[in-house]
Amino acid sequence: MTTIAPEETAREAVFDATVAADERIEPRDWMPDAYRSSLVRQIAQHAHSEIIGMQPEANWITRAPSLRRKAILMAKVQDEAGHGLYLYSAAETLGAGRDELLDKLHSGRQKYSSIFNYPTLTWADVGAIGWLVDGAAITNQVPLCRCSYGPYARAMIRVCKEESFHQRQGYELLLTLSRGTDAQHAMAQDAVNRWWWPSLMMFGPPDDESAHSAQSMAWKIKRHSNDELRQRFVDICVPQAEALGLTLPDPDLRWNEERGHWDFGPIDWAEFREVLKGNGPCNEERIGRRRRAHEEGAWVREAAAAHAARKARNAARTAGTGEATR
Ligand SMILES: [Fe+2]
Ligand SMILES: [Fe+2]
């Protein structure tokens, strides 16, 4: 029989009451080990998705059709790097070091969103990613602004503001193509055809197969189920597609008066599982490039560490002698 110390029970009661009152758990607070590890897993996967997600779009920076489009795309890709940084910092407040998390990403022990294993074949893909992939990300992340863990919730507020800019730039890009020449319109339609289903998969497996959902919702890390968010996203996209003059590649898409939602066709979960297993079109390329970038950046990390160590030594010496040193 295990005995639970009274102070343990008291700390757990404080944690439960904080979550129940919709207040935030902060890094200094006691939290159950499983809450901490669940958050680390989710935040790490989110951080990894932000930085791996830079690759498919960066592929088009040098081929953007105008200076305006190039400046917008560069800003967007840089934003994604920033999102990665906020999120790795949020994970650090839980005791998970950045080196450790990157190591898990590079060795395949932690995942990133499967959407980034699809290729960007044409310029229109930049628009489809902004509209659909960033759009799905917002749908997922807006409720995370109210997540029970303070640092994650606060990071999400800024991330969502930037994601909403990303979504609009994608929409505007697609609108321009859709109203352009026949070839441009066809390119926009083709991109939407390829990105629609993978973006629905971004919400994760159906609720009855989602391993972590119920506990995450009880802890108020997640506020809505995968299927609920997916439905919300479909309902938002249908009228937007119509305004774009583009169609969504689903013959079963139908307004359901009774439910007050759009019905949609079955998702190919076999494809999702294959991509997740590492067999998507670009898995190897994405992780290979990430590992290379990490190796090639080793000298920057070493130089930064040496600089920080020297500054600390100098500060200690100055404090000891009262003299300024350089
Ligand atoms: Fe992002
Ligand atoms: Fe984004």
Task: Explain what you see.
- Helix 2 (33-52) packs antiparallel against helix 4.
- Strands 1-2 form a two-stranded antiparallel ribbon.
- It contains 13 helices and two strands.
- Helices cover 66% and strands 2% of the residues.
- It has helices at 6-20, 33-52, 54-58, 67-92, 98-106, 124-141, 150-178, 182-201, 213-218, 226-244, 269-279, 283-296, 298-321, and strands at residues 254-256, 261-263.
- The chain is mostly helical and 326 residues long.
- The structure holds fe (ii) ion (2 copies).
In the predicted model, the low-confidence regions spanning at least 5 consecutive residues are none
How do the helices and strands follow one another from N- to C-terminus? HHHHHHHHHHEEHHH
- Mean pLDDT across the residues is 94
The ligands bound in this entry are:
fe (ii) ion
Q: Quick one: biggest sheet?
A: 2 strands, antiparallel
Q: What is this structure's SSE topology?
A:
Elements: H1 6-20, H2 33-52, H3 54-58, H4 67-92, H5 98-106, H6 124-141, H7 150-178, H8 182-201, H9 213-218, H10 226-244, E1 254-256, E2 261-263, H11 269-279, H12 283-296, H13 298-321
Antiparallel strand pairs: 1-2
Helix pairs in contact: 2-4, 4-7, 6-7, 6-8, 6-10
Bound molecules: fe (ii) ion (2 copies).
The site of one fe (ii) ion (FE2) has 5 residues, from α6 and α7.
